[in-house]
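PROTEIN–LIGAND DATA SHEET

This sheet pairs a single protein chain with one bound small molecule, fe (ii) ion, given as SMILES. Inputs appear in the order they were entered. The predicted three-dimensional arrangement of chain and ligand is reported afterwards as a token string under its own label.
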Amino acid sequence: MSNAESIIFNSDSLEFRGSLSRTSWIQSFSDNGKIVFKYNYDDYNFDKAIIDLLKERNFIHSSKHLDKIHEELSADDMSVDVNQINNIVKTCYETNDHIGNLYHKFIKECVQPIMDDQIYFQKTPTFRFSFPRSIGMTKRDYHNDIMLGHPPEEINVWIPFTNSSESKSFVILPLDKSLYLLKKFDFNLQSLHQAIWKDDKIKQFCDDNTEIVTLDKGEFLVFDSRCLHAAILNESDFTRVSMDIRIIRLNEYNKLPFTYIGTGRRKSKFIPNDYYHQNVI
Ligand SMILES: O=C(O)CCC(=O)C(=O)O
Ligand SMILES: [Fe+2]
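PREDICTION REPORTED AS:
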């Protein structure tokens, strides 16, 4: 997620431009930079584990369905700050052993097998809770995670734990359109991000060309990290809960030209034992 004040990464190095303009692993399967995979949801049941966690932490007491937890939560816990983060997202920065084990099982059984190499993976997954008509949501969140300092060689993985369609999801700009914008701004991420916030034509181009990600429990999306994407205001009566993670194939990790560092408050280093889990899988 990003906002008008976000610090945006940029580099003029030839290697960085080369990474942004390369043909990626995903492009050999999909021109639009995204692929949907299926898995057996009953082996994981993340939704039940998340409900248990929120009960343990006294945010909720009686909810049975994850997409209805907003009925029990306070308005305060659901409103987002300038970084589009609410209290429930914050509490999930640290989960419990059960969710940690499910996460590792998911990476090992569902994500690694679709890759042709070992991978480093995000140590702590990002959980998102998008509540109905949440106060404070921006309408211009278009970004890619490279703008926030991530290596372009990363691959994004997005996994919903509630039915995701229409506004109870997020939107993504297909790779050809994302590359068109990147090239238009000469691969300068700061200029592109500024245009998203200041130039209504660029914002309109994104609005007109993004696609809503429509997935159910038991499906997940893998997308090229250059694709622009955005969180959107949830205008449905259901809470959207999802997890997003980033992985990088070992061979590409080993060839990175420098250490990438996140532009956020934590200044995470995209290296093992910091942003990534210490071991490849
Ligand atoms: O789920 C969302 O609303 C945004 C997801 C996102 O920004 C990401 O996966 O990097
Ligand atoms: Fe993102």
